[in-house]
Amino acid sequence: MSAQPEVWRVSTIEGVFETDFETLKQWIVEGCVLPTDKVSKGNLSWIEAARVPKLKAAFDPHATPAPQAASTSFDAFVESHPAHNSTPATPPARINDIPRASVCCQNHPEVEPDYVCRMCGGMFCNACTKFVRDKVPMCPSCGDLCHEYRVLAEKTARMEFQNSGFGMEDFGRAVRYPLQHKTALVTGALIYAFLLLAGFRGSLIAWMVMFGCISHVISQVAWGRLNRSFMPDFTDFSLWDDLVVPIFLGIGIMVVSWGPLIALVAALIFGVVSGGIKAPILPGAPHAAESSAPDIKVLMDPNADPAKLAAENEKLQGLRPGSQIAHEADASKDEANNPAGAARYLLPYLAASIPLALLFLVLIGWALFYYPMALTVAGYTQSLGSVLNPLVGLDTIRRMGVTYFKGFGMVVVVQVVAFVVSVIVSMITAPFTIPFIGNLPGNFISATFSFYFNLVIACILGLSLFKCSDRLGISVD
Length: 477
Description:
The chain is an alpha+beta fold. It has helices at 21-30, 56-59, 74-79, 149-162, 168-176, 182-196, 199-222, 239-257, 259-275, 285-292, 296-300, 306-318, 321-337, 339-381, 384-388, 390-400, 402-428, 440-467, 469-472, and strands spanning 8-12, 15-19, 38-41, 47-48, 115-117, 123-124, 130-132, 136-138, 146-148.
């Protein structure tokens, strides 16, 4: 079913008439409606026909169409302003950052607009806009409500930035992000570094502070709040939200990503310590042990056969400790000279080690690959259940598609750079190492760099979520 046509009223010398918009334009072309005649859309105020932006082309077909277009929605406003249709390198935060081409007050071309009419799309400065009770802006042309141009322009730029794709520009933006808040960066890095040097409890608090900042950055950037500081707001401190939740989310991240690998290592250590590694039993070994034992009856019998007595004495001499050591040494030489004999001992160990080695590599790969996604899920859901459920992360990866793999590659690059920086810092500060204490200057400097690099990783993950917010159902600002 087609939409109902717009009803327009026209006041001419002959009287007042009602018609649809297309017929009204035809009347203008035919000269039945003059520029000075009054028109009104629906029950809105009467204005001169020549002042309606969408009717100007009907009065002068050769004139360049006005940049404003009739609109009852924000999408139409975006389409009617080509100055905003180019993808900016960064989302403008102020009206001065927006290109000024074709963006000006309808009555004052040299003045930037302050308001945009939601009905006719006209743009007006503050002096031209009418206000009801000095608060509600009204369009001076059609009398409908107006929106703030700055708000709509920022929303337009944010939409364009969101749809611009995820690439190296976002990587550079993530690298610059912590530097935009220098005071918070220096303060947070110093707190984090000092806490790491304060023993186990201090390290635990430092880890909590770091994860709280990471989670805050991911959530803020994923929701489109690109200019917010990465330090949480502690003015209204909540024990549950600011302390308990970050601790449990951090534990959940470790469990879902590194937990399987830790469990495997613990199982191997527990098995080695409790039962030891049993040497493989070679065929014929029990029989050889039994045959090497001397016959006590023969040794105690005074009437025994001299040949048997000599054989049993030889076996008895072989049980002496010195004789056993010499025998083992001879056996070791034989195994060294005979690789086939040594292989008989190693094959059982190798057969059991290959599956464990493969499982170990798989779990390492899982931890390295899924850890960024675990951080991402924790950042934008703030739910321990979602973090512990790997299906949530895998489904997020599926919906993000290639964007996640781009972000994962960027995270790997940052981690490699962080490792190289830590090695360089350790080498430079090695002369300051103190016995039984360690390299305090090196550890402090490495901790400050670690704080910065973790914020960069968090911003990368947040930007990847922001660029996929339509697919993930994230409501951006």
